[in-house]
Amino acid sequence: MSEDPKQVAERFYDIINEGSLERLDDVCAPDVRGHAGAGADLPELKRSIGSLVEAFPGLTATPRHVLQEGGLVTTWVTYEGIHRGSYAGVPGTGRRVRFMAWDLFRVEDGRIVEITQACDLFTLMNQIGALPTTAPA
After folding, report:
1. Mean pLDDT for the chain?
2. How far apart are CA 55 and CA 104, in angstroms?
3. Based on CB atoms within 10 Å of each CB, which residue in 45, 70, 120, 126 is the most buried?
4. What tens digit of pLDDT does each residue of 25-82 get?
5. How many CB atoms lie within 10 A of CB 116?
6. Residue 18 in contact with residue 44, Cβ under 8 Å?
7. What pLDDT is attached to residue 136?
8. Which of 113, 100, 37 shows the shortest CA–CA distance to 73?
9. Greatest CA span in the chain, whole angstroms?
10. pLDDT at residue 137 above 90?
């Protein structure tokens, strides 16, 4: 019997919270297809998430809304952490960050076979000081 798709999504976030990205192999199909911020395949997905985990050690993902229809699971997620390593060319600042993301998973036979990720990078980049400030009018 296949694992419930919502449980698969929950395991995905548990893996991020543990920082054990090698375990993504446990929840993702080897030929997983990614879209948007997820990267095109499993190695790119690991690199994408890995760059966040490396720059924000102890990063936590907290799913706020999890909805399922058949094998599709969508989540609205809050990420929180402290900017300690380089991210997008910005060295660690020690600043606390909090930003939102949206994920859509397609789950078959207990594994993620397709993932689309959209992240509020504008908020994240603003919080680490990567965006220029606007001049007063």
Report:
1. 93
2. 24
3. 45
4. 999 999 999 998 888 999 999 999 999 999 999 999 999 999 999 999 999 999 999 9
5. 16
6. no
7. 61
8. 113
9. 63
10. no
**Strand runs (DSSP E) across 1-137, as ranges?**
28-36, 60-69, 72-82, 96-108, 111-119
The amino acid at 44? E
- Token duo for residue 89: 């060319």
Helices (H) and strands (E) in the chain, counts: 4, 5
Structure-token pair, residue 74: 């969508």
What is the reported pLDDT for 39? 84
Token pair 């929840």 is found at 27
For residue 60, the tally of other CB atoms under 10 A from its CB is 14
What whole-number distance in Å separates Cα of residue 124 and Cα of residue 83? 10
